[in-house]
Amino acid sequence: MMIDTRFITLRAVMLTVLALLVVGPGMNLAKVAPASLGRVVSWSEVIAVGTVISVGASDSESSTASIRIEDVWKGNPGAEVEIDLTRTWPCDGSRAIMGERAVFFLSRVDGTLRIAHAGLGRFTIRAAGDRQYCDVPDQVITMPTDISRVAGPTTKGYDWSAYDLEALKSVVIRLDRHGGKK
Q1: What percentage of the chain has pLDDT greater than the value 90?
Q2: CATH of 38-177, one of 1.10.8, 2.40.50, 2.60.40, 3.40.50
């Protein structure tokens, strides 16, 4: 008895396609590539501490946010900036939370400011006693070795570390002066 291998190959292809259609939409195969803090600094036109004062939405997704600038580390943004939160690809984590205070690394794309490094250039600031810390995603932002970290939360598939806000500011300003390099 002769078996037609074309039928077996076609069946295997059909089953693979069916499996991808069923399982594929839930899979997130794309990931943001790691980058050094120096590279993120060099990609950013504006780096500043600010508070989100409004979030605009189109349909069910946030599309813009306004940030009141409190402390400028790089650039000349003015007292308030509007940023585009539109996702540019599946792993783009651009978002803003009303009232959130963070360090924002902003790059200009097509004439609008966006959160750098696929939305991961947003380090939330939190207070602990009389000190302020910001949370940085370890797996996508590699920090220089001369800044001390403390353990942070594990969320959204990333391990986060906390860094002293003033120490981070000094490192960012130094990196900016040296073109993103130590």
Answers
A1: 43
A2: 2.40.50
